[in-house]
Amino acid sequence: MMLVDQRKGNHQPVQSLTVPGTSNVYSMVRPHGPALESELVAYRLYFNEKQTPDIYGKFNKGLELKESHFYPTDEQLARGFGDDVLRVFDSCGPGALKGWNGKAATHITPVSTRTERILSYGPIRVIAEVGVTDWDYQGKELNMLTRYTLYAGHRDLYIEALFDEPLTTEVFCSGVQDLVGSVSTSDHKGLVGSWGTDWPVNDTVKYAKETVGLGTCIPQRYVKSEEKDKASFLYTISAPGANYFNYYTTFTSMKETFGYKTPEAWFAYLRQWKEELSHPVTVKVKN
């Protein structure tokens, strides 16, 4: 994450930044928020009320963001660098945590302050956080911290939501974007996926359409209902009495030489992924 001086073309690394909730620093922060990368994929977290993960697809395995900053040059593209592969619009993209108004997902606003920070730079895992204070939501003022962890060798992002006080009746939501021309899958128990093709940016001359697959997996104990709004396939989430819940999101890009080339293959992977998540590795310490 860097601050940009547009006049001088300078970029200064930033580890943590806090702004009033009314501030608009989206275009002043590069690449619009902190970025996380493994050998397989990269994400960035929007520094605005959307707080949506955006995705960077790769042709080949490797680390690129230190050089490309999520915005590869023509020379880097010619060398086989990946780039942005999705326009999230107002959707939840891949697994954004959103509010829920009973009919559609809502952004995380208004808030008193918004903070985005990087906790770990690797090499085992990278961790970034987005924090808000005094989120005026469903008659409450919530202080919420959303933590994102990406492990080396993984394409899935581990997402944790933490609150300074136990939740009561609040309902949130997450899921996957309804991509242009998309097909989708759901097990109706917390797993949802989509596959589709669209232009990743507004420049439809220089850039080609991109095909991506998205997936989100929410532990069934947090699932309240399955929903669909204009932009996303969703599950609503509640955790009354708790000050924490967690879930996962993931994606693939058609440009990957190591990835998935059909929606059928991607959806089969998502089912396998959920099965693996339901049987986590356990570590026992022997005396």
Summarize the structure in words.
The protein has 287 residues and is mainly beta. It is built from three helices and 21 strands. It has helices at 65-68, 74-78, 263-277, and strands at residues 2-5, 10-13, 16-20, 29-30, 35-37, 42-45, 53-57, 83-84, 98-100, 105-106, 113-121, 125-137, 140-151, 157-163, 172-177, 183-186, 191-198, 210-217, 223-228, 232-237, 244-253. Strands 3-11-12-13-14-21-18-17-16 form a nine-stranded antiparallel sheet, covered by helices on one side. Strands 10-9-15-20-19 form a five-stranded antiparallel sheet, with no helix packed on it. The longest helix is centred in the last third of the chain and has 15 residues, at 263-277. The relative contact order is 0.15. The model has no long low-confidence stretch (mean pLDDT 95).
From the structure above, extract its key features:
287 residues, Beta-galactosidase, Chain A, domain 5
Report the biggest beta sheet as strand number plus sense, adding barrel if it closes: 9 strands, antiparallel
Count, helices: 3
Shape summary = globular
CATH architecture: Distorted Sandwich
* Overall pLDDT metric: 95
Could you tell me the strand content as a percent range? 35-45%
Widest β-sheet, arrangement of strands = 3-11-12-13-14-21-18-17-16
- The CATH class is identified as Mainly Beta
- Poorly predicted regions: none
Say how many strands there are.
Answer: 21
Question: Any idea how many domains?
Answer: 1
The end-to-end span amounts to 43 Å
Structural class, from helix and strand content? mainly beta
**What sequence of helices (H) and strands (E) makes up the elements?**
EEEEEEEHHEEEEEEEEEEEEEEH
